[in-house]
Design goal:
binds 6-deoxy-beta-L-fructofuranose, four-stranded mixed sheet, 22% strand, single chain, nucleotide-binding, ATP-binding, alpha+beta
Length: 506
């Protein structure tokens, strides 16, 4: 038979991609849904990039915003490219589509489908003070007890609380989160996907429903959001006019873990039982444990932890740590002043300079906004060794960032385990673009004294694609089948504590 091709639209804060996942028919013949056959092999999924593009924050209408029209144009081109690629690879075109992106941000979309204003980015300063004013209505302890979500300044609820467009918007204007907006543009259907809904800060902890008290605190009502949909359910087919225009079939769009971190953690290649320890490493480093229930204690709140919804009734108990953003924004500053920076060269230089000289706190909200990042990191750096007063070269600065990240990962993973009352797991999985950073993986293994398993790099796209595969019945619907498929499909690298280089493993 022909292989099955699926398309993932995956938007990150600095780049986007349309990926094709190719599932070859299993030699054992298990593409029939596999209800209950617990030992069915799941085959392999090949990952192919159909289209990659940049994503850049810019000022529009006085706010730091996403260029959503440009992104939509790239997505359209990407889908056409994906269809061609799927055919070249021997498939009968793409059979379904799933969309994921960064969390919390939304568009307001009027009754006729017209967007009202820009999609303002979560790093925009409009939310300064918003969390404090919402806290005067519902205090922070109660917010956490109701939702399990950490009070980050950018949560959708605080954005909505200061959104001056809501008053003048037409009645019933639903706020569509970014992936839900793209799904709406593809299908004409309005839904709010559950994993990303949890990042609004208004979903009731552990329930598939909004918290009326939190909606009120944000100054919105339930009608402001489209109906909830769970990851794995079908939204509907691509609109026929659009399908014709793009040269694709009227294939189903499937709700996946539309919060990129939910899809990335779904694709963590863990085989062990017990809580999985992960870092989803991209613009942010999201570090924590996958659990069956949220940790809603006051101590968890005070420690800044959050409980985000995952695919299949899981919870990610995690901490947001500024991640590769610190490096990419520093590079942006050096390049603005004329330097040309190659990331691999920079990391090699960082590995060669003496370590343990400087530290920063990558959980400090002072690093949230863009601009002049290299200067801000150098200003914030504490001296812990050597006799220089501040990091001077890009290599020194990056060394400081990576060592600080590794130590923060150690402290936050220990905190997560303490707060969730679990022992430290035997290994930590690092997935996402940052898993390519071998120096950081080694520093992390050294700091924690446990094994770090790096990869897959494209975890988000893999989580998106494998859930589509399961929804279509192409792999069995049983616990573990997705991670089994991921493990069979990717190369991983293992970093043992105390060593200086990784060893390959399958
Ligand atoms: C990572 C991410 C993260 C959120 C942030 C807004 O891309 O989705 O999980 O906290 O962006």
């Amino acid at each position: 038979g022909r292989p099955l091709a699926l398309a993932a639209i995956d938007l990150g804060a600095t780049s986007g991609r349309v990926m094709v996942g190719l599932l070859r028919p299993s030699p054992y013949g298990t593409t029939d849904g596999g209800e209950g056959d617990s030992d069915d092999p799941t085959g392999r999924l090949e990952l192919h990039a159909a289209h990659r593009f940049e994503n850049r924050l810019g000022r529009r209408d006085g706010h730091l915003s996403w260029d959503i029209d440009a992104l939509w144009e790239q997505v359209r081109q990407g889908l056409t490219a994906a269809e061609h690629l799927a055919r070249e690879l021997g498939a009968d075109g793409i059979s379904s589509i799933g969309v994921d992106s960064w969390a919390v941000d939304y568009a307001l979309v009027g009754p006729d489908g017209e967007r009202i204003g820009e999609v303002i980015a979560y790093r925009d300063e409009r939310t300064d003070g918003a969390a404090e004013s919402v806290a005067r209505r519902v205090d922070v302890g109660r917010q956490f007890a109701l939702t399990g979500i950490a009070q980050q300044p950018f949560n959708t609820l605080y954005q909505l609380a200061v959104d001056d467009r809501l008053g003048s918007a037409p009645a019933g204007t639903p706020a569509l989160l970014v992936p839900d907006l793209l799904t709406f543009l593809l299908t004409g259907e309005r839904r709010t996907e559950l994993t990303n809904a949890s990042t609004t800060g208004m979903l009731a902890a552990g329930e598939n429903a909004w918290s009326p008290e939190m909606l009120e605190a944000a100054g919105v009502d339930e009608g402001q959001f489209a109906p909830l949909i769970r990851p794995g359910e079908r939204v509907g087919p691509v609109r026929s006019d659009l399908a014709r225009e793009l040269g694709i079939g009227e294939v189903p769009v499937i709700a996946v873990g539309s919060h990129d971190t939910a899809s990335a953690v779904l694709a963590v290649p863990a085989a062990d039982d017990g809580p999985v320890a992960f870092i989803s490493s991209g613009t942010w480093s999201l570090i924590g444990l996958e659990l069956e229930s949220p940790v809603l204690t006051e101590r968890a709140r005070e420690a800044g932890f959050t409980n985000e919804r995952g695919v299949d009734e899981t919870f990610r108990f995690l901490k947001n740590v500024a991640g590769m953003w610190l490096v990419s924004e520093s590079i942006a500053q050096w390049e603005e002043s004329g330097a040309r920076i190659d990331l691999d060269d920079l990391l090699a230089a960082a590995a060669a300079v003496p370590g343990d000289r400087f530290r920063i706190d990558p959980t400090d909200p002072c690093f949230l906004a863009p601009g002049r990042m290299a200067d801000r990191v150098a200003d914030a750096a504490r001296v812990i060794g050597g006799d220089e007063e501040r990091p001077r070269t890009p290599a020194q600065l990056v060394r400081c960032i990576l060592e600080s990240l590794a130590e923060t990962y150690r402290d936050e993973l220990h905190a997560a385990c303490r707060l969730a009352r679990r022992p430290l797991p035997e290994r930590l999985h690092v997935v996402g673009g940052g898993s390519r950073n071998r120096l950081l993986s080694q520093l992390t293994a050294d700091a924690l004294g446990i094994e770090v398993v790096a990869g897959p790099m494209e975890a988000t796209a893999l989580g998106n694609l494998t859930l589509q595969a399961r929804a279509l019945g192409a792999i069995p619907h049983r616990p573990g089948s997705i991670r089994e498929l991921v493990r069979a499909s990717v190369e991983l690298e293992v970093f043992a504590p105390g060593e200086r280089s990784g060893t390959s493993a399958r």
